[in-house]
Amino acid sequence: MVKQKAVATKEIMSDVDTLERDFMHYLRYHLGRELTSKDEYQLTALIYIVRDRLVENWKKTWDSYQSQSPKRGYYLSMEFLIGRSLRNNLLNLGIEGEIGEALEKLGLELEEVEQLEIDAGLGNGGLGRLAACFIDSCATLQLPVMGYGLRYEYGMFRQIIKDGFQIEEPDHWLGFGAYPWELKRSEYTRIVKFGGYCRSYVNPKTGLLIVHWEDAEEVLAMPFDVPIPGYKNKTVNTLRLWDASAAEDFKLTEFNQGSYFEAVAAKNEAENITMVLYPNDSSESGKELRLRQQYFLVSASLQDIVANWERHNDSYDNFAERNVFQLNDTHPSLAVAELMRILVDEKRLSWDEAWAIVTTTMAYTNHTLLPEALETWPAALMNRLLPRPMQIIEEINRRFLAQVAMKWPGDIDRQRRMSILGGQGEVRMAYLAIAGSFSVNGVAALHSQLLKEGLFNDFYQLWPHKFNNKTNGVTQRRWMAAANPGLRQLLDKTIGESWVTDLSQLSKLEKQLTNKAFRKKWDDIKLQNKQRLAELIKREVNIKVDPNSMFDVQVKRIHEYKRQLLNALHIIHLYNRIKRGDTDNWTNRVMIFGGKAAPGYDMAKLVIKLINNIAKVVNNDPDVGDKLKVVFIPNYSVSSMEVIAPGTDLSEQISTAGKEASGTGNMKFMMNGALTIGTLDGANVEIREAVGEENFFLFGLTADQALAKAGRYNPQDYIDNDHDLQAVMRLLEVGHFNQHEPGIFNDIIASLKTHHDQWMVLADFRSYVDMQAKAADAYQDKEHWTTLSILNTARSSVFSTDRTMEQYNDEIWKLPKIAVK
């Protein structure tokens, strides 16, 4: 036994020596640096040696897919919020220890080098983070799934807080040069068309209508591939990101004639397509750029998939049996029209043949219950920018409405409601996706039910078989194993390591509820994580917080329906209690916020300002001290959430019931042992069922109650009947938090008091405050709180994306699992 251990140690040391040698080789000979340069070059050298080890398995994976020719899945998404990749890839390769030891021999610390990595600016919020978790789980489950997205040069924006206001600065995440994880694949460059006109004629031999899309602007789509490794299984799937460039790079003649701007105009316009994530679409030019991005993604991706198909197949007879496309929200729904264009115009299939393929390969995931969030595009813009896809959409709609008329003869109102082309001629992208897909899923049980009963009820009546639910999840490899190493070590020691790929193993933790040593270690890890979060807060906003306080956290996109404003009102209430001396049995709290408001969303930006103004007053009031601290962490990101989630005590999931599709932050917090205060909205419903009703701080109106109250909501009634709310509103109205900025929060006050507040903030105030008091009391019983924390982690297994992707595969995709040798 001793001898075997010695041999194993020697092998590891050999790996360590190789890693050390390779690191110095890349640093010195590829990057021209020495160890003395403490900068991004050390990170790049480290990424290169990790990528080398991925590429070998990447090729084996690709070869396995090509040789076995299985049914393939393609995940089309405008966002992939992958964050930093180094820690996750080291974890999945299983070489963290060896890498750490190799760097130690060189006088470096792995954790310090990891901090140099910049979050990839490929997404914004839950939609993009979900896509990143999905492709991680697909690789771990060995499903042949390829992701397709855009290679944005600038992320959404870098958020700076100045005088309490959100300031947007460019997020030039590619500013250091190429993304070191990616491989440029010029040989797979595609051409995407915009503008021009269509010319058609009927083929006299076949009778088929032939359409030529002519005089179009051509943009090159250059692919960059990013490896997505599974967990210790040799599978490395591909995320292909498209970068836009001009087909004609530079017009030298015009330059020589002095027309400098015209010489590079085409180049600039083409490259703008992938310049920025989510351009502000409040202007016509912004709308056009957004539409260009969406079509660029689906056209390049579908051309790529079809070209790969033709390399190995002579016909399209079994294309539908061997390919499936998952559309991540409405953004890629132009894929329905684009695949029709390719099959009908380029491959000369009949309309019926092509439509049969499209409607058996496309699957659509809806991510919103807000009607205003369902994308529509003006018909005039579509006709000018995408003349041929628009013609195809019009024909799809004509045939679709005939089907509706057949089902409900004479029901003109229903035809109007269901038409893919709206009353102003606008294209309703969600309707196009539903009409062209064989599967339509929501992302939480309540969300999927509300889609069927409300938003898409007409379509559900027509095609009930299409609708299904796939509750979201998150990957435990990123959000527990990598983000919470202390917890990972405890879990490995207590229940074994298999939980990393089988989260149901967490249920074994319930047997440890009475184990004093385990509970002590649990508490120690939580305190260490809170200390790490306190250090982040001190570093980012220079506020010192006490890790023994309750860390009460709401981090997510800033939006009225997510109700950061309700949280802010509760903070004012707590502040008011302190000022009037009502602090018996007080629980110290640190209220932590993070999230970005869309640049054009004035009310959301005003809420950020309010939170920061409240923080300035509270944090500088000597009467308050450590009883209450308010923190807004700027530029919320994946890497900051990896510190925040493990350090959270109370997770705020307080959206108006019936408005949140799912949420995934709630799952990350739960997995890391945080307790939830929330409404019966989105996945909160399932979280409460999983952890137990008695272990969830529930408040507020239900979705049915909120719907019933719409149209007769009177916020003044709640103010008149609640002294605490009156006190909160008075502090807002007299300008206590904006003494030198008179009137700045008038719009917020008006939004709270209007009968038309669809978020019903004041309706839930009393219930929220009362439940917050119960949470504060519960936190004081440390033993009970620890029990609840352990139970949250132990019962979180259903929220792994491994489970989510198994369900997608079993019920929608039906892909084989391909083992890589």
UniProtKB/TrEMBL annotation:
Cofactor: pyridoxal 5'-phosphate
Molecular function via GO: 1,4-alpha-oligoglucan phosphorylase activity
Alphabetical keyword list: Carbohydrate metabolism, Glycosyltransferase, Pyridoxal phosphate, Transferase
Enzyme class: transferase
Reaction catalysis annotation: [(1->4)-alpha-D-glucosyl](n) + phosphate = [(1->4)-alpha-D-glucosyl](n-1) + alpha-D-glucose 1-phosphate
InterPro entries associated with the record: Glycg_phsphrylas, Glyco_trans_35, Pyridoxal_P_attach_site
Role played: Phosphorylase is an important allosteric enzyme in carbohydrate metabolism. Enzymes from different sources differ in their regulatory mechanisms and in their natural substrates. However, all known phosphorylases share catalytic and structural properties.
PANTHER family, A to Z: GLYCOGEN PHOSPHORYLASE, GLYCOGEN PHOSPHORYLASE, LIVER FORM
Listed name of the protein: Alpha-1,4 glucan phosphorylase
Native organism: Thiopseudomonas acetoxidans
